[in-house]
Amino acid sequence: MTLPLMARAASKNLVLTDAEPQYANKLCWAAADVLAVNNFYPHCPASPSTPAATPALYPTSQALEAAYNWGEGSATPLSWYLSQCETTIGNCNNWGTPLLHGLTFQWGTAAGLSWETMTQEIDAGHPVLFVWDYPSNGTSASSPVGLHELVVIGYSDDGGTQQLQIWDPWPVPDPLPSEVPACGPASGVQVTQGHSQPIDFSTYSDPVSDMGVSADHVQDQWDLAVGAVPDAPVLTVDGGTPAPHPIPPPFRKLPRPRQKLWPPVPFAEALHAALPQSRHLDLQVSGAAPRSLGVPFPIVGLGFQQLLSAVDDPTRLLAGSTSAILFPVESQGEVVDAFLLLFRERRWRRAGYANVEITRRLVDVRARYAAQRHLPLHSFYMVSVPGEVAFFAAYGKGKKAVLIPASTDPTIDAVAGNAVPARKQLRKLIEVIQSDLRRFR
């Protein structure tokens, strides 16, 4: 029997020209911009220091996008900003919004695209950029501060469930790249499969929780195509003043009732109730090696408002209670997947989004610190501050707590695997958050 077209299972993943992790903790938007633009313009010109005029018929890079973002409205030539970003990308580590030079596109609404529209976009070879926000940050809906940008690069309903393949720029590479060219990726950066992973379509439009912190879908850039945007800027890397670009619309939020937040419960109680639920989940993948549950992390998820309200003693936030647990999924000694169980309506349920590459790093730094100190793995938890792309394996509570960063981040004096007293690390985070909020008010 021939099935109707709409009833047939289907899947497609884009063949990406240039998919990179973000090269600094605030550059997820730049990494997403690069992936999208370079999907249409794959070949660097003979002289990448001199891009063509509008439309920008050349690939871009995180250094170029960050330079333009930094120098917006300045009389200083873009070449100066670019030189700073190329040699030390951390100089240009600022929040921003993808401009998608050389492409036309549409802005989506907070509701997200329909499944039919999304699959049509991927079938046409168009990635879709989308943004998640964290209400507990309390930031302005029109500000890029604390947002996270991701990209849809594929879809599948082969298993009977509508899923999207996404590219998540988190986390930054380790070690950080020494130089980032004006065209194309930085050399020597290892890109792992953990940056690309499937999520349920419902998670895209309603993420619920991102690494243990409440999250909302707020914006899309879609219907990407080659062409000049009206009044688009002319990039002149070798001199001149960059022209102003159209201001993107604010990140609109749909008014919708939020689900009741249940109070966190002590770690031991949470694990006692959640572990039986986790063991009922089917972890296996057809054709792949057997999978098993790793040692979970109870999560202390922190938004900007929580940290700023505890500026006198932020370690009081590390009281040993949780409403979210991160479960690594392992195969042959490697983390191959991850998921969250959330405490909702007095039950532990699988929901939200867990970044596989961050989970892999957390498992690694936990194992090393536990071996050095002869500590049991189950005595660790996770501290998650997604608004600042800061994730830590943690040990101890309150003033005795230590945080072990999963990634190196010079802006908060974090070095992957190097344990720091929680009081010192959280105070540094608060300083950076305060600085970010001042700059974007």
Which value, in Å, is the CA radius of gyration?
Answer: 22 Å
Biggest beta-sheet profile? 9 strands, mixed
Unreliable runs: 1-7, 49-56, 229-248
- Mean pLDDT across all residues, rounded? 87
Q: How far apart are the termini?
A: 61 Å
Helix content: 10-25%
Structural class category: alpha+beta
Count of individual beta strands = 19
- The global form is globular
Percentage of β-strand residues? 15-25%
> Please, how many helices?
9
N-to-C SSE string, H for helix and E for strand: EHHHEHEEEEHEEEHEEHEEEEHEEEEH
Account of the protein in words:
By secondary structure, the chain is an alpha+beta fold. The chain is built from nine helices and 19 strands. Strands 10, 11, 13, 14, 15, 16, 17, 18 and 19 form a nine-stranded mixed sheet that branches. Strands 1, 2, 3, 4, 5, 6, 7 and 8 form an eight-stranded antiparallel sheet that branches. A hairpin with a 2-residue loop joins strand 7 and strand 8 (213-226). Helix 1 crosses helix 2 (62-71) and helix 2 crosses helix 3. Mean pLDDT is 87; it is low at 1-7, 49-56 and 229-248.
Fold topology:
Blueprint: E1 11-13, H1 28-40, H2 62-71, H3 78-87, E2 103-107, H4 115-123, E3 128-133, E4 148-156, E5 163-167, E6 196-200, H5 201-205, E7 208-210, E8 213-226, E9 265-266, H6 267-278, E10 292-293, E11 297-301, H7 304-309, E12 321-322, E13 324-331, E14 334-344, E15 347-350, H8 356-373, E16 380-385, E17 390-395, E18 402-405, E19 420-421, H9 422-439
Parallel strand pairs: 11-16
Antiparallel strand pairs: 1-4, 2-8, 3-4, 3-8, 4-5, 5-6, 7-8, 9-12, 10-13, 11-13, 13-14, 14-15, 16-17, 17-18, 18-19
Helix pairs in contact: 1-2, 2-3
